[in-house]
TrEMBL record:
Boundaries of every Peptidase S9A N-terminal domain copy: 29-435
Highest classification ranks of the organism: Eukaryota, Fungi, Dikarya, Ascomycota, Pezizomycotina
Family label: Belongs to the peptidase S9A family.
Protein name (record): Prolyl endopeptidase
Biological-process GO terms, alphabetical: proteolysis
Location of the Peptidase S9 prolyl oligopeptidase catalytic domain: 507-709
GO molecular function: oligopeptidase activity; serine-type endopeptidase activity
EC number: 3.4.21.-
Transmembrane segments: none
Organism, as annotated: Fusarium zealandicum
Catalyzed reactions: Hydrolysis of Pro-|-Xaa >> Ala-|-Xaa in oligopeptides
InterPro entries (alphabetical): AB_hydrolase_fold, Pept_S9A_N, Peptidase_S9_cat, Peptidase_S9A, Prolyl_oligopep/macrocyclase
UniProt GO cellular component terms: cytosol
Length: 715
């Protein structure tokens, strides 16, 4: 039997003993993987009832729900913005949780008019008696022409990744009668011209990839049945994404297929059905949708590559000219080569964009960041401008206009509310949004520190903490979070959704701290930092996180029972690993929409797409690695686990609800106390949105407050 260690500073590195027997054969839980089977939902309902009874009985829950509801009534939620000839924004509020889509039309003098309603998603959902959500990803590629007169709208029911297509007339604010429309499926689409679209889908029994995406792409003509669409490409791999090639009415579009998450192929499709495979180096980091500038496809490199006689490092940006008039020897050009120790830490999210003739990059070194603007000049590209970011902030590239060189940018920091603005070629700026401050941020400080991981690697971490502590010295309540996979960096913006959004406000107001380790597997230190924790090296990511937690204790900041961990998706896996590998080191765990069964993850949701990241459990050596940290496989009887709150949605078809269900079932069978599952019927992979789901998030904060602040310490 393993006894939980005392809460002092000694014996921090003691692992959970590996001789304790598993609870049940792992196959005994597979029945819980069926998303909507009646017997599964009956089990879920019982778990939800138990969880809500206990969590709603906590003294903080009702007050927290009222607090989050009041915050939702403020203007703290940053709208989403795009520019595609005209300006668009999706604005959400407590009364419009799914949002209203608005347009500001460009005037003859280049300015923009007043905002005008185009589509009310909540009202549409009420009319159809469904929980419709508007898919924002790749929105810009689904607008048509320089006046963005039409939009290919993708709508999800309940947060599912399966979406249905409808064609929206922006001028009329109505869906086009007999326009492009489909049933729900995995769909990626872009315009070729007003009467033709390039579409990849999973409808009508079309072939799919191992990850469940469409394997075939088609040209679909207006007024015809989708079944009659012309097949133009069949691709191997896991994911295929359609994106525009320059202006959305150019008559061309791109098919980008991920063979794995660092190997991509690109095909250029013309409206006449011509398909050209582009001779671009295939090793590229995850950066979708693909960026294009006029006739150029612009991509980053994931490995050292020789281009135009130059050996380029990882992270360099190159361009491929698709024009048929350019000879093959001159197709490739070098856009930008990073300086030593310079990385694009937010490549996947907001660190890379393009407009009509420019490429934009956000490059950073350890303590500084700058925004670069580059333009094509003859056969080369030149740096037009380098703009430093103020210390403590991050500038993100929100949207670039394919019809001009206007760009939308957002600046924010952990203690600096966001500002969003439109910037034109001459540097003129139009303010779009200024986020209000909703807690006393001047009473807090952010410090960057470092510690050594198990193998000696230096790991940086940030501590956001009150300047004047409210809690006993050495017992500071701390929330830790991270991600650590796919080269994705944690967003360090004001109340970012990745950090919990407005649900952090009551935690800060009660005197809590937030710690963000820059663990390997993420993108904070560039592609090599990601590669350092991929597949068989995954444990390094967890060692980094553990090292930071141990340092917090060793430095006398806090004690294990006052440290909580929360994370979403791969961050949910991280949180679950922390609770099973080092139950002695943490006082509470929140695992949101997690992976937990690393032996079956390829069979759940779109898990087959992630084999390049995690490894293939069918390979014997890799199976040993996966099983060594798989939270589901490392639940043992006799271990005193920290309290767990595991949250998920029945509609989460990205990771799959089975991971969360099986993990909770096994923890309870092992005799773990204070284990809660809450599964919402809707919400999908984004179920823990405090604006849409204040009830769930108030329970989450109440859970963390109860176990990390309110309950008296025991040894």
């Amino acid at each position: 039997m393993v006894i939980r260690l005392p809460c002092g500073r000694a014996n921090l590195a003691a692992p959970v003993a590996n001789f304790i027997l598993p609870v049940k054969p792992d196959t005994g839980y597979q029945w819980l993987e069926s998303q909507e089977a009646p017997e599964c939902l009956e089990w879920v309902d019982k778990q939800n009832e138990l969880s809500t009874q206990q969590l709603d009985a906590l003294p903080q829950t009702k007050t927290l729900q009222e607090k989050l509801a009041s915050l939702s009534d403020t203007d703290v939620r940053r709208p989403s913005y795009w520019i595609a000839g005209n300006l668009f924004r999706l604005r959400k509020s407590s009364t419009n949780k799914q949002g209203i889509l608005e347009v500001a039309e460009r005037q003859p003098d280049g300015t923009f008019g007043e905002w005008r309603l185009v589509l009310d998603i909540d009202e549409l959902g009420r009319k159809e008696d469904r929980e419709l959500e508007f898919l924002e990803f790749n929105f810009q590629n689904r607008t048509f022409g320089p006046d963005a007169s039409r939009i290919l709208v993708l709508l999800s029911d309940g947060g599912s990744d399966l979406v249905e297509l409808r064609e929206l007339d922006v001028k009329q604010g109505k869906f086009v009668q007999d326009g492009f429309r489909t049933e729900p499926g995995r769909i990626s689409i872009a315009w070729l011209d007003l009467d033709h679209v390039l579409i990849n889908h999973t409808l009508n029994g079309t072939p799919t990839t191992t990850a469940g995406f469409g394997a075939t792409s088609y040209i679909w003509k207006r007024g015809t049945d989708l079944k009659e669409a012309k097949l133009v490409n069949t691709a191997p791999g896991t994911i295929c994404l359609i994106s525009s090639m320059g202006p959305t009415h150019s008559g061309q579009a791109l098919i980008s297929c991920a063979l794995d998450y660092s190997t991509f192929t690109h095909h250029l499709v013309s409206v006449d059905g011509t398909v050209q495979k582009l001779d671009i180096p295939q090793k590229q980091p995850l950066s979708l949708p693909v960026k294009s500038i006029s006739t150029h496809v612009v991509v980053p490199l994931a490995e050292k590559t020789t281009v135009c006689g130059r050996e380029l490092p990882v992270g360099a940006i190159i361009a491929y000219n698709t024009s048929p008039d350019v000879p093959a020897s001159e197709k490739l050009s070098v856009v930008y080569v990073p300086e030593p120790d310079e990385v694009n830490a937010h490549l996947f999210i907001d660190g890379f964009h393009s407009s009509r003739s420019r490429a934009y990059l956000i490059m950073s070194k350890r303590d500084s960041e700058r925004r670069l603007i580059l333009e094509k000049a003859d056969k080369d590209w030149k740096l037009v401008q380098s703009v430093p970011t103020k210390i403590g902030s991050h500038v993100g590239l929100t949207s670039g206009d394919p019809y001009s060189d206007d760009i939308i940018l957002t600046e924010s920091g952990l203690l600096s509310p966001s500002t969003t603005w439109l910037e034109s070629t001459d540097g003129a700026q139009r303010s779009l949004y200024a986020q209000p401050s909703v807690f006393e941020d001047s009473a807090f400080q952010v410090q960057q520190k470092s510690t050594n991981s198990k193998d000696g690697t230096s790991v940086d971490y940030l501590i956001l903490s009150p300047k004047e502590p409210k809690h006993k010295q050495g017992e500071q309540p701390v929330l830790m979070t991270g991600y650590g996979a796919f080269g994705i960096s944690v967003m360090l913006s004001y109340l970012d959704m990745m950090l919990g959004g407005i649900s952090l406000v009551p935690w800060f107001e009660s005197g809590g701290s937030l710690v963000i380790p820059f663990i390997r597997g993420g993108g904070e230190r560039g592609p090599e930092w990601h590669e350092a924790a991929r597949q068989e090296k995954r444990q390094r990511s967890y060692d980094d996180f553990i090292a930071v937690a141990e340092t917090l204790v060793r430095d006398g900041i806090t004690i294990p029972k006052r440290i909580g961990v929360f994370g979403t998706s791969n961050g949910g896996l991280l949180a679950a690993v922390m609770g099973t590998q080092r139950p002695d080191l943490f006082g509470a765990i929140v695992s949101d929409v997690p992976l937990t069964d690393m032996m079956r993850y390829p069979h759940l949701g779109m898990g087959a797409a992630w084999i390049h990241e995690f490894g293939d459990p069918q390979e014997p050596e890799m199976a040993k690695v996966l099983q060594s940290y798989s939270p589901f496989h490392n639940v043992r009887q006799g271990v005193q686990y920290p309290p767990f709150l595991v949250t998920v949605s029945t509609k989460d078809d990205r990771v799959g609800a089975g991971h969360a269900r099986k993990f909770v079932a096994k923890l309870k069978d092992a005799g773990a106390s204070d284990v809660f599952l809450y599964e919402d019927r809707v919400g999908g992979h984004g179920v823990s949105d405090p604006f849409k789901n204040a009830t769930l998030m108030s329970r989450r904060v109440a859970f963390l407050t109860e176990f990390l602040q309110s309950r008296p310490l025991t040894t």
